Every structure is written in structure tokens, then in C-alpha cells.
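We emphasize that the prediction below concerns an isolated chain of 58 residues; any contacts that depend on oligomerization or on bound cofactors are therefore not represented. The input was used exactly as deposited, without trimming of termini.
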Amino acid sequence: MGNLRCRKCNCLCDPSDLQNGICDDCREEMEQKEKQSSMIARMLNMDFKQLKLEDILK
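Result of the prediction step, given as a C-alpha cell string:
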């Protein structure tokens, strides 16, 4: 059996760790970046109002 390497980070992997040529660590990193980007996009599109001290004391 040949050496199996991740296409992204080029690390040696077990066949069970690779999916579409990407290792578990790289897939997890990509998922985290995607979640973070999604959260940032939602936050930027939120319709919110900045609270002021006067609003709180009413």
C-alpha cells in the first residue's frame, strides 16, 4: 500500500482518516472557518440598536 497523504497539509494518514483526500484535522479546521464566517455574516446582517445609558435608566 502506498503512502497516503492529505492534499491540503501533506501529512501521512491512515486510509480511514482521509475523505476526498483531506485528513480529519484539515476537515475540522475548514468546518470551523466556515462556521466562523457564517457567524460573522449573520452578525453583520443583524438589525440591532446600540443601547445607551439613558435607555437603561428609563
